[in-house]
Amino acid sequence: xESWHRVLNSLLAKVxxxxxxxxxxxIDYVVFCYNSTPHSVTGFAPHFIMTGQQPLWNVDLLxxxxxxxxxxxxxxxxxxxxxxxHAHAMVRDHLRATAEHTSTWYNSKVRPASxxxxxxxxxxxxxxxxxxxxxxxxxxxxxxxxxWMIRA
Length: 152
Description:
There is one protein chain. With about 150 residues, this protein is mainly α. Helices cover about 50% and strands about 5% of the residues. It has two domains: about 1-110, no CATH class; about 115-150, no CATH class. The protein is built from five helices and four strands. The protein has a two-stranded antiparallel ribbon with strand order 1-4. The protein is flat.
């Protein structure tokens, strides 16, 4: 969810006015463009993954470029379900390949940590304080009195 908010803010920053008061006018367009763009991880646009069809843009409606074949409702439903099943299988393959690639890259960068007796370390203390945002809280004790020494 955080990455989606980062992308949304980045896209809105490109279209809103300097006063930043007209963002509501563009939010629908920005979300539509995001949902219509294929993602590198899945290989598909979110709109296609959810509906089984490509989105219709304004130009498609103006030029009457949308394919609404003369199909019965059961035939259309069956075709959409088949497209969705095939797309979801491909998305799972893309996600698996991306996860393997990311795992390999991460594992190549990780180095094991080792500590010796007498080393100074920071202590993780995940306390939450009422009235303070956990996003801005520092969870490691950092003062010299709170730095622990490893003992045998």
